[in-house]
Amino acid sequence: MSDDTRTATPTPEDAMRSARLLARAEAAVMALFTTRAYELGWTVRSEPSGILDHVTLCCDVGHTTQVTPVTALHPKLGSTILQAPEGQVFHLEVGMEHMAVQGNPQLAVFSMALEECEHCARKQWEEAARASFAAYAIEADLRILADATSSNGYSAKKVCCLQGHEFTITAMDPRTPKREPDYGLAYGRTWRDFTLTDSVVKELWPERAPIIAMASPTPLQKGGYGFIPGASGADDPCVTCVRISQTPKLVEFRRRAREENAMILDSMSDRVLQTVRLCCVAGHLTSVSINNGLKRALLCVRCAGAGIRPEPTVYYVVAGEAMVKPGISSGDGRGRLDTHRSQHSLGQVRRLITDLPVGAALNVERHVLSGLAGQGIRPVMGFEFFDAVHIDRVLELADGWFATHLPNSPWSVTT
Fold it and tell me: Is residue 77 helix, strand or coil?
């Protein structure tokens, strides 16, 4: 340091000024804390004397928590290491081991952050999620079959996806904003809730009496509702469909079936060795192993044996009490109609148009399906089975296409 540089000695006036500035800063933080606590719905139950003191808050319902006023500036400023009373130790539950201080079971790190009441926030979220579950099920193409109970104790529903897979799902909409709050298992409780006498710990949890090793500082474990993360997140809740979409052979089998206009009559599992029943475009019923079917030129055993790939020249609409199905076939179409009658209880033939020019059946099918999709009408099973309430719209779209492109095509109608 050069001779020209001098360090000024603080004067008493400087010390008084610093104390006044510090007092004003603390007063500002306390005012911010009081305002923020009120905005979050808390009532201050203990008089704070400093920004680092522990303050007890109580929500309108009666839940209590402890915080430090300085966390009004930033939540991470609120962690503090507390020591258990003499003769007691901290017993931390599963998921909270990271709060332990390594080497000393009488010390633990507790969050003193100022946040909204986790219990109340979680309850409000659950109520909103339950209220919107029906809409979520519709948008995720889930058919609700029955009430159920999940392993985590929340209300659940037994549902069926478009591909016929049945499973149980928590009856809450996982898309509801602010899912699974990050407050963790310790929120809403004070350090006193985790202190036990050493003798009690040794008696009840002898394996936990030794020091619990401190884990790396990670966020507190989130409360789980048992949601199933699918390939598209919350919009794809069926685990089996997700596994099928991740298995190349199964994806190829489905693609080939669509390309050959073959109906898969059984729900596919996630196993490539599965044998499923097919009804090809010609109406042939056959059972085929997925592995073996992929080795043939055509999935249908009879068509592959004859070396002929039938061209769809038939358009039909069949209906029952619950569903309506527009589709295409070849020949006279009776094979497909018999399959729908026996497998899907669709015994009413509302339209049957045969001997169509090559490509016409595919074109009218695309027109009807795209028209239904454009009006927000979604299938209730597979890709082409719709709720029976939409039968008039299906017929209107089909009849409109024929009136425009093939006005002289005769059709057979059974009502």
Answer: helix
